């Protein structure tokens, strides 16, 4: 006797989104046997309680999981099944990245593009430099180049620079080998971020480039390709050269400065720079925070956007951060007191008034 609550294979196929032939295949593979097979006709019949497994099976196959992996996921508890799905996705992403790199190499071969050596450096050193400056890049759909990092190789080393128009971060690192190449291009910031983990683990990286991409040749970890952006990068060197003289300079303990900023819950931060103190204030709190500092020059009252100031301080190296002020309307330069190869410029904002929106919104 057949169970009247069971569905024939055609009806079940429509319910779960699989074809009848696929259901027969998954039965043969042992992944989804029918609830019953009629003894006289050999028809496969399926129960309502099998729908969830059938739908999950279909979805796992749609993301390309192998039969063996699907079988494990179907029979696993939810936590283990999620781990198996994540593991499969990681493999797919890695395979896609490898295919993309291979495709780029094939296209280079077909188009006979020449690859130019740029520099050889310590992987962790380059990763640190990129990580520090890329915080100044931004995802602006109207100006894609602001999401990139400018690479400039020359006799002084390799300089990496990023800017979002409100701040600019630049750092120069010295190559490990002597390469006189002069080269400058803007590299996609997203591609660089995705390469950072492998770059940190590679003792040495060789940078090569052609007209469309920059290659990071990583020791023991394969290669990473980063796209080059065609838009012209902002003329940051002209801006740096045009900066007025420094009027006030402050050396501030980095950790104390960061802790004070993290205690603020405001969009804009005021800094009162005096002879031996820097005071942080905002319109959201009545409690000012005073930080001992060494100050040269006249006192100054200046305001910054939190999202502009904090990344500049947090990326600084060393126990003290050195800030050069040029009045309350000009960019301030943030450097480490003991290392000057990382420089960040941050634009101040107009002093806020009670009830006013942030300066960027006005």
From TrEMBL:
It comes from the Bacteria. GO terms for biological process: DNA replication. Residues 6-76 form the HTH merR-type domain. GO terms for cellular component: DNA polymerase III complex. Pfam families: DNA_pol3_beta_2, MerR_1. SMART domains: HTH_MERR (SM00422). The keyword Transcription regulation applies. The keyword Transcription applies. Keywords: DNA-binding, Repressor, Transcription, Transcription regulation. PROSITE patterns: HTH_MERR_1, HTH_MERR_2. One of its GO terms (molecular function) is DNA-directed DNA polymerase activity. InterPro entries: DNA-bd_dom_put_sf (IPR009061), DNA_clamp_sf (IPR046938), DNA_polIII_beta_cen (IPR022637), MerR-type_HTH_dom (IPR000551), MerR_fam (IPR047057). This is MerR family transcriptional regulator.
């Amino acid at each position: 006797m057949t169970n009247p609550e069971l569905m024939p294979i055609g009806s079940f196929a429509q319910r779960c989104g699989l074809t009848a032939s696929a259901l027969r295949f998954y039965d043969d593979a042992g992944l989804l046997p029918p609830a019953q097979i009629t003894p006289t006709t050999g028809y496969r019949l399926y129960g309502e309680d099998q729908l969830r497994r059938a739908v999950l099976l279909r979805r796992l196959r749609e993301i390309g999981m192998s039969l063996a992996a699907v079988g494990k996921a179907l029979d696993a508890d939810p936590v283990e099944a999620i781990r198996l799905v994540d593991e499969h996705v990681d493999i797919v992403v890695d395979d896609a990245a490898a295919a993309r790199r291979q495709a780029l190499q094939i296209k280079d071969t077909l188009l006979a593009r020449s690859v130019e050596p740029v520099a050889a450096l310590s992987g962790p050193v380059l990763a640190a430099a990129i990580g520090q400056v890329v915080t100044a890049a931004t995802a602006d759909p109207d100006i894609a180049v602001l999401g990139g990092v400018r690479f400039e190789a020359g006799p002084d080393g390799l300089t990496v620079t990023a800017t979002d128009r409100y701040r600019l971060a630049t750092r120069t690192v010295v190559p490990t080998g002597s390469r006189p190449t002069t080269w400058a291009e803007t590299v996609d910031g997203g591609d660089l971020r995705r390469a950072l983990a492998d770059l940190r683990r590679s003792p040495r990286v060789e940078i090569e480039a052609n007209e469309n991409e920059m290659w990071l040749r990583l020791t023991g970890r394969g290669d990473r390709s980063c796209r080059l952006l065609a838009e012209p990068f902002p003329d940051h060197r002209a801006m740096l050269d045009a900066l007025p003289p420094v009027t006030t300079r402050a050396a501030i303990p980095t950790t104390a400065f960061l802790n004070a900023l993290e205690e603020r819950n405001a969009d804009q931060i005021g800094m009162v720079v005096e002879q031996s103190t820097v005071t942080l204030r905002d319109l959201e709190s009545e409690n000012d925070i005073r930080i001992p500092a060494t100050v040269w020059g006249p006192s100054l009252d200046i305001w910054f956007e939190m999202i502009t100031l904090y990344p500049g301080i947090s990326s600084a190296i060393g126990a003290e951060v050195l800030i050069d002020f040029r009045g309350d309307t000009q960019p301030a330069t943030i450097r480490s007191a003991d290392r000057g190869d990382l420089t960040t410029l941050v634009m101040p904002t107009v002093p806020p008034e009670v009830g006013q929106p942030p300066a960027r919104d006005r």
